[in-house]
Amino acid sequence: MRVIEPISSIMSTNIIALNREDNLEMAEELFKRHHIRHIPVVKEEVVIGMLSYTDLLRISFADAVYDTDDEVDSLVYNMFSIDQVMVKNVVTVASTASIKEVAEILATREFHALPVVDDGLLVGIITTTDLINYLLKQL
After folding, report:
1. What is the pLDDT of residues 58-112, one digit of tens each?
2. How far is residue 114 CA from its own chain's centroid?
3. pLDDT tens-digit series, residues 12-42
4. Which of 64, 65, 68, 121 would staple 45 via disulfide (CB 3.0–4.6 Å)?
5. CATH architecture of 7-138
6. CA 58 → CA 71, 134, 135, distances in Å?
7. Taking every annotated instance into account, which residue ranges of this chain make up the domain CBS (predicted)?
8. What number of CA atoms fall less than 13 Å from residue 121's CA on the CB side?
9. Could you give the residue ranges of the DSSP H alpha helices within the chain?
10. Is 38 helix (H, G, I), strand (E, B) or coil?
11. Are 131 and 97 a contacting pair, CB within 8 Å?
């Protein structure tokens, strides 16, 4: 009989999160320093949004045109708030959800990461990379 593991067995629990009052420069610094692509936005420990590195790239399109990337980033990032750029109405999963259930959500909804929430509080994050690493261990 096949055991269906809960997502808690492979999710990341070392959570990097932002508050809506943080700025986009700080977000970019966190993406780069921690080599991550998705950051939950929280109010206290409750998820209110999700910011992806792709969201930042969308608003900093000028980077491809100018040589002074830092100046352009600062200028563009100061024009927007995290609240304006983040995805709201985030789909979340419980830590008890099965790996299969989460894989189905990620595949059908075309997400690349989901916050893991228990009793309304952020407890982890699961990404497509986590699922790929899980699959590689199975082979």
Report:
1. 887 644 555 445 554 667 788 899 999 999 999 999 999 999 999 999 999 988 9
2. 7
3. 999 999 999 999 999 999 999 999 999 999 9
4. 121
5. Roll (3.10)
6. 17, 30, 31
7. 11-68, 86-139
8. 5
9. 24-34, 53-59, 69-79, 82-85, 99-109, 128-138
10. strand
11. no
